């Protein structure tokens, strides 16, 4: 069971402190779906006429609704689904949700079995989204379910992930790496399978889509800031963040936040591995000297981060778009 489904996981801090997605990126996904994208691939001529319609949108692993709510105005009906009861409860208690609104519904379901979603029929969904969650799914089953439920020819899939928050400050980036991955006393060994399978999963799911006869026009776009800096310099990275595009015109998923040290620590508190760390160390009270978040905060302060300073943080990201044959 993913940590997000456990009672000890604080769903409301997930809602408050996780990053949201830029409207520019939602526009990109909708343009792709509508088949009305300026950044047309060379194979575009072959898909002319297959314009996606906007009847039904299905958001998998919806969490607290980071994609479900902003995309729902663009579709006649949006269904948000997640295996975690507490995530679904949080969505239903959101001010954006109205019980009698038939255009926005939530239900409990895993991406590997969509047949449990009330009233959902095969070949009926216009757009399936899955944000920051596909690494929890079983890739073949997920791809098989998406192919089954998307509308033939006009249905599309969009999934995306954000990976590490990057400061572009070597000292602060190193402290993040220490507490999150490198030092086994902290989160290093405590990542759920979902996270540790992350890279393998990305390769496997993209391979399945690219080799599948069920999908075409598969687009995979990565924003790897440290590689970009290494290859083209920090100015190229800063321009990419500012314009939301690489120098070759390729549109990026740019997720950024300006955070004080307090807010950064609150964001870190949403990491599933941190939840596991507290469970593993019942003897350590939150906020005491041995608490790893207190230690991390001390390191960040010693590296020069004063609480009133606001730091610009940009996440590495990846998105994948595909159309159903
Ligand atoms: C990091 S949250 C992402 C939530 C939201 N989509 C976002 O963009 O912030 C991951 C979500 O995936 C859900 N999840 C875990 N395993 C899943 C599965 N097999 N099928 C569907 N969702 C799953 C979790 O319950 C959790 O709500």
Description of the molecule:
There is one protein chain. With 325 residues, this protein is an alpha/beta fold. The protein has one domain: Vaccinia Virus protein VP39 (Rossmann fold, 3-Layer(aba) Sandwich). Helix content is 37%, strand content 18%. The chain is built from 13 helices and eight strands. The protein has helices spanning 11-17, 23-34, 68-71, 85-92, 139-149, 170-182, 193-196, 198-211, 225-232, 234-243, 261-268, 272-280, 292-302; strands at 56-60, 77-82, 104-108, 127-131, 156-166, 215-223, 255-259, 311-324. Strands 1, 2, 3, 4, 5, 6, 7 and 8 form an eight-stranded mixed sheet that branches. Helix 3 links the parallel strand 1 (56-60) and strand 2 (77-82). The radius of gyration is 20 Å and the shape is globular. Bound molecules: S-adenosylmethionine. S-adenosylmethionine binds at residues 2, 4-5, 18, 60-63, 66-67, 82-84, 87, 110-112, 131-133, 136-137. Belongs to the methyltransferase superfamily. This is Methyltransferase type 11 domain-containing protein. It holds the Pfam family Methyltransf_11. Keywords: Methyltransferase, Transferase. GO terms for molecular function: S-adenosylmethionine-dependent methyltransferase activity.
């Amino acid at each position: 069971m993913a940590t997000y489904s456990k009672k000890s996981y604080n769903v409301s801090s997930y809602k408050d402190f996780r990053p949201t997605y830029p409207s520019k990126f939602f526009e990109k996904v909708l343009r792709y779906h509508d088949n009305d994208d300026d950044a047309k691939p060379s194979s575009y001529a072959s898909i002319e006429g297959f314009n996606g319609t906007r009847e039904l949108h299905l958001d998998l692993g919806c969490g607290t609704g980071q994609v479900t709510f902003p995309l729902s105005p663009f579709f006649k009906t949006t269904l948000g689904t997640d295996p975690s009861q507490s995530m679904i409860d949080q969505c239903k208690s959101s001010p954006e949700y109205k019980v009698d609104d038939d255009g926005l519904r939530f239900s409990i379901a895993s991406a590997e079995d969509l047949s449990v979603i009330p009233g959902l029929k095969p070949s009926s969904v216009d757009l399936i989204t899955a944000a920051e969650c596909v690494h929890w799914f079983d890739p073949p089953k997920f791809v098989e379910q998406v192919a089954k439920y998307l509308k033939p020819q006009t249905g599309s899939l969009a999934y995306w992930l954000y990976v590490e928050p990057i400061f572009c400050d070597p000292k602060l980036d190193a402290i993040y790496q220490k507490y999150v991955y490198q030092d086994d006393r902290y989160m290093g060994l405590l990542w759920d399978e979902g996270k540790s399978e992350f890279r393998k999963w990305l390769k496997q799911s993209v391979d399945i889509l690219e080799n599948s006869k069920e999908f075409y026009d598969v687009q995979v776009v990565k924003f790897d800031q440290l590689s970009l800096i290494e290859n083209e310099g920090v100015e190229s990275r800063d321009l990419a963040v500012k314009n939301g595009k690489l120098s070759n015109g390729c549109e990026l998923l740019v997720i950024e936040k300006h955070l004080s040290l307090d807010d950064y620590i609150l964001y870190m508190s949403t990491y599933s591995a941190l939840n596991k760390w507290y469970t593993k160390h019942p003897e350590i009270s939150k906020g005491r000297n041995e608490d790893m978040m207190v230690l991390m905060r001390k390191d960040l302060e010693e590296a020069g981060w004063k609480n009133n300073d606001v730091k610009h943080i940009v996440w590495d990201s990846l998105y994948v778009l595909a159309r159903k044959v």
